[in-house]
Design brief:
mainly alpha; 196 residues
């Protein structure tokens, strides 16, 4: 409803605050509404940023090092990472993903599989019912590091913290994610040569 303008962010915020009994009880939700407003304002000011990298990748890799095509195993939800497959299946069957899962999927595609953020953003938008070019693409750039100071990554412990029992987070089924942030940074960004 927000994506298609049926309700405004202010209407949603007002209703949520009244229903929750005050803003403190839903602070994170209000922050998410603020991010959406921010992305919309950036898009209005810089419409050319939606499909073009705002800054170079800060990963040690050049843009030419990233694939332009989405690997088949991602589209088929048959990667060797069980939780990623679950997120893909959820996206493709419902047209929706929780914000954490969107970031995990974006980071996996860009950093673990080294696919251009535009490719991943276009693919995700094709499935999202609430897909919005500003929120989607500028978030992908934030994850990729072309609109942030550094790349966003996650590890298996983070996925375990924010998902329920319906997502397979066993280490043996998610080996690519099972490590410390320092170890994963060294593996994913070896050209940086510094601990992140």
């Amino acid at each position: 409803y927000i994506r298609h303008g049926v309700v405004t962010l202010e209407e949603v915020r007002r209703h949520a605050v009244a229903s929750a009994g005050g803003p403190k009880r839903i602070e994170k939700f209000i922050q998410e509404l603020a991010w959406r407003d921010y992305w919309q304002r950036v898009y209005a000011a810089h419409p050319d940023w939606i499909w073009h990298s705002i800054e170079p990748y800060k990963t040690g890799w050049d843009e030419s090092d990233y694939r332009e095509e989405l690997p088949d195993d991602i589209e088929a939800a048959s990667t060797d990472v069980a939780c990623i497959n679950s997120f893909i299946q959820m996206l493709q069957s419902t047209g929706y993903l929780h914000n954490h899962a969107r970031m995990y999927l974006a980071a996996y595609i860009v950093h673990w599989r080294r696919v251009r953020w535009q490719t991943g953003a276009r693919w995700m938008m094709s499935w999202l019912l609430d897909g919005d070019p500003a929120s989607n693409n500028l978030s992908w750039q934030w994850v990729a590091s072309t609109f942030s100071r550094r790349p966003y990554i996650f590890n298996l412990a983070n996925v375990q913290k924010y998902t329920g029992p319906d997502i397979d987070t066993r280490p043996e089924a998610n080996r690519a994610l099972d490590g410390s942030y320092a170890d994963l940074s060294t593996q994913l960004f070896p050209k940086l040569g510094v601990e992140r």
